[in-house]
Structures are given as structure tokens and as C-alpha cells.
Design a protein that fits this description.
alpha/beta, three-stranded mixed sheet, binds nicotinamide-adenine-dinucleotide, binds UDP-4-deoxy-4-formamido-beta-L-arabinopyranose
Length: 365
């Protein structure tokens, strides 16, 4: 691995107790980076941090900090030499964002502003930002732009997506404003799925899952009665919408590739650049349903219902820019992602709630 070339200062991971953040911390450690995690646990808990330490046999400094609390964040920067930040912390539920826009704008935008101000104060000028394919909105309005390249015009249709685009624009403005250059990698994720192959960490949504794979896995362990398929009258192979599903470990590795890319940019130049992180392959809801049924060997009950408000026909990435520049591409397909999701689910049928599961399955340190 990259131990010898990795920097000795720390990478701060905001939202590192969350789904994508926790998987990225594992990859960072495996690539020789030293990390610190901050999270306010608004959508997570300490358990994944405990498990990552077990999995990687590495102590990870953790601070329960809300990013909007500048004094608390500054105390973290005072204690550790932080050189780069991977910024996952944010609220992400599309539906909730339309009901509570102030909550989303405040948390996502103020949190990012405070983070950037703190980074500036402490001279940390490298940031990888979690953006989303949702910034493209309904890309099918540009028929020659499917699969979607980064040049596709943006047009988010919900407050969550608008906070992501606003932050992208803020980063661009900040990059353009200064002589001492910032280095920004803006990563537009498509649909992250799956779990770490160890089954030690995975996705554990609070409440009723909004997303397809977590919902299906809860049906499989009988926490939910059946899957509701949101519409089968779309103009696709089987009438259900198309998405670009990407294994969360592949996605996590995209962050390592981005950090390495930023490291190669001369600090007198800086950079602010967008990359799609997707596979380039689209799957319909029914294709994913079948792949997951195969993985768990259950014919999951489902019912076709009306389309979900705000859903679009096709969000498939054109990942060429990441392949060429970051030297990164996906290595695992939907079937492998479903297998790893099922492994995580069977080991942790009620997610992280069953604390102590680490001891039971994996042996306490
Ligand atoms: P997640 O909710 O599992 O993780 C986000 C973490 O950030 C949580 O642990 C939460 O407690 C924390 N957090 C939120 N607000 C915070 C604040 N103000 N201060 C400190 N911590 C805070 O979500 P995820 O799926 O891991 O997503 C990570 C990032 O990627 C988010 O920014 C999300 O918008 C973005 N993203 C996610 C997806 C997806 O489908 N999962 C797709 C595209 C983009
Ligand atoms: C996938 C497909 C649904 C649940 C969301 C956000 C996006 C990004 C990724 C953060 C769709 C169908 C789903 C169910 C279903 N997140 N579905 N029954 O909507 O593509 O993207 O997560 O940035 O911003 O919008 O993902 O998993 O919710 O849906 O039929 O119970 O599954 O209609 O076609 P989506 P999803």
C-alpha cells in the first residue's frame, strides 16, 4: 500500500461515523493516512468508529463536534496538524429537505462555511467534498447527455440538492478569490450501495429507509413487510427507473485517488475540479431487486405502486474524467454489492443497535 508516500499530517474526516465516511476512514488507514474523525451523530452513532478501530487495529481520534460550532472545531484544529479535510458531514434526505429547508440550508451550508473559515485560519487548504448526482436534476432533459458528463448543466430540484450545488459554487468562488491557492475536489456520487466485505461496517439508516437497497435488506430480515416499487411506466427496459449503483468501497477509494491527485497539484496553482464517481452502467429497480433476491436467496415480496415525486428516469454517470485523471474506476458490480450488503445485514440484522456484536462475531480486542 501507499504507506511510504502518505503524508504525516492528519486527514480530518467530517461525518466519518456515517455510511460513506466510515468506509473511507478504513481505506485511508489502509493507505497509510492518519485520520481524525468529527461527527455530531445526528445520523449515526459511535459504534462504527469502535468497529473501524477493531478492523484496522488503529486508534482513531474522535470528536463529537457539530460543524456549525466554530469554537469546538477550532479546538480540534489546535490539537492536531490537519493538512486535508474530507467533508462528508451533511444531511441527505431528499424528502425531509423539502419539508425542512431551513434545517438543511443551515446544517449543510453553515457547517461548510464554518469548516472553510476554520481551515483558512489554520492554513489547511485541501478539501474533498461530497457532492451528489442530484445536482444534475433531471438530466434526461438533455438527451445527448446520458450517460451524464460533468459538463451537463446542473439543475437540482430539491433543497438538499440545492445545498450541494450552493457549496460547489462557494468552493469555486473561494478558489477564484485567493492568491494562496485552495485545492478542492468536488465528487459527485451516484448511488452508493453495499457494505464493507468484512460485514463489520455498513449502512444503518435511522427510521424507515428512503433508499432502495437498505429498504430491500430490511424486507429480507422481515423488519419491513414488502418492497414498494415506485412506478413501472418509465421509458426503460422494464419500465422502472435507471440508476448508477456503486459499491461503497469503490466510492471510498475514489476519495483516496482524489487526495493523491490534489497532492500532485502545485500549491501556487491550486485547483477546483468536479469529478463524477459512478460506474457508467445503469441498472433498473427490477434488475437490482433480482440481484438482491439472488444474493439473499429469498423471493422478496414487492408491490408496484405509483411513481415517487421528484424521481427521474435515468441517472447514469459518464465516469471518463475520473478514470483518466484520478486513475480510478469501479471494480465491483451490483451483484457483488448485493452480496456484501447481505453479509452485513445477516451479521447485523438490526444495524448498529446491537452493540457488542463486534465482540460476538469478530472477537473483542
Ligand atoms: P450519513 O448520514 O451516513 O453520514 C453523514 C454524517 O454526517 C452522519 O454521521 C451525521 O451524523 C454527520 N453530520 C451531519 N451533519 C453534521 C454536522 N453539522 N456536524 C457534524 N456531523 C454532521 O450519509 P452518507 O450516506 O455517508 O453521506 C455522506 C455525504 O455524502 C453527505 O454529505 C451526503 O449528502 C453525500 N452523498 C450521499 C449519497 C448517498 O446516497 N448516501 C449520495 C450522494 C452524496
Ligand atoms: C433508487 C431507485 C426509486 C426506494 C437518492 C438521492 C440522491 C443520492 C442517492 C444523496 C429509484 C426506487 C427506492 C423504494 C423504490 N443521495 N425505489 N422503492 O432516489 O436515485 O437517489 O440517493 O445525494 O440525491 O435522491 O436513490 O435509493 O432512493 O432510489 O422503488 O422503497 O429505487 O424510485 O428509482 P435515488 P433511491
Amino acid at each position: 500500500n501507499g504507506t511510504s508516500s502518505a503524508p504525516q499530517s492528519y486527514v480530518l474526516v467530517t461525518g466519518g461515523a456515517g455510511y460513506i465516511g466510515s468506509h473511507t476512514v478504513v481505506e485511508l488507514i489502509e493507505n497509510g493516512y492518519k485520520c481524525i474523525v468529527v461527527d455530531n451523530f445526528s445520523n449515526s452513532c459511535y459504534e462504527p468508529i469502535a468497529r473501524i478501530q477493531l478492523l484496522t487495529k488503529t486508534e482513531i481520534p474522535f470528536f463529537k463536534v457539530d460543524l456549525t460550532d466554530q469554537a469546538a472545531l477550532e479546538r480540534v484544529f489546535e490539537q492536531y496538524p490537519i493538512d486535508s479535510v474530507i467533508h462528508f458531514a451533511g444531511l441527505k434526505a431528499v424528502g425531509e429537505s423539502t419539508e425542512l429547508p431551513l434545517k438543511y440550508y443551515h446544517n449543510n451550508i453553515t457547517g461548510t462555511l464554518v469548516l472553510l473559515e476554520t481551515m483558512q485560519k489554520f492554513g489547511a487548504k485541501k478539501l474533498v467534498f461530497s457532492s451528489s448526482a442530484t445536482v444534475y436534476g433531471d438530466a434526461t432533459r438533455f438527451p445527448n447527455m446520458i450517460p451524464i458528463p460533468e459538463e451537463c448543466p446542473t439543475g437540482p430540484t430539491n433543497p438538499y440538492g440545492k445545498t450541494k450545488l450552493a457549496i460547489e459554487e462557494l468552493l469555486e468562488d473561494l478558489y477564484n478569490s485567493e492568491q494562496t491557492r485552495w485545492k478542492f475536489a468536488i465528487l459527485r456520487y451516484f448511488n452508493p450501495i453495499g457494505a464493507h466485505p468484512s460485514g463489520i461496517i455498513g449502512e444503518d439508516p435511522l427510521g424507515i429507509p428512503n433508499n432502495l437497497l437498505p429498504y430491500m435488506s430490511q424486507v429480507a430480515v422481515k423488519r419491513r413487510q414488502k418492497l414498494f416499487v415506485f412506478g413501472n411506466q418509465y421509458n426503460s427496459r422494464d419500465g422502472t427507473p435507471i440508476r448508477d449503483y456503486i459499491h461503497v468501497v469503490d466510492l471510498a477509494r475514489g476519495h483516496i485517488a482524489s487526495l493523491k491527485y490534489l497532492d500532485k497539484i502545485h500549491s501556487s496553482e491550486g485547483i477546483c475540479r468536479v469529478w463524477n464517481l459512478g460506474s457508467g452502467t445503469g441498472s433498473t429497480v427490477m434488475e437490482v431487486y433480482k440481484a438482491f433476491c439472488l444474493a439473499c436467496k429469498i423471493d422478496l415480496p414487492y408491490e408496484i405502486v405509483g411513481p415517487r415525486s421528484g424521481d427521474v428516469l435515468n441517472l447514469t454517470a459518464k465516469p471518463d474524467r475520473a478514470i483518466q485523471e484520478l486513475k480510478w474506476k469501479t471494480t465491483m458490480n451490483v451483484a457483488e454489492s448485493c452480496k456484501d450488503l447481505w453479509n452485513w445485514t445477516t451479521r447485523n440484522p438490526s444495524g448498529y443497535q446491537a452493540k457488542g456484536v463486534v465482540n460476538k462475531f469478530f472477537g473483542a480486542p
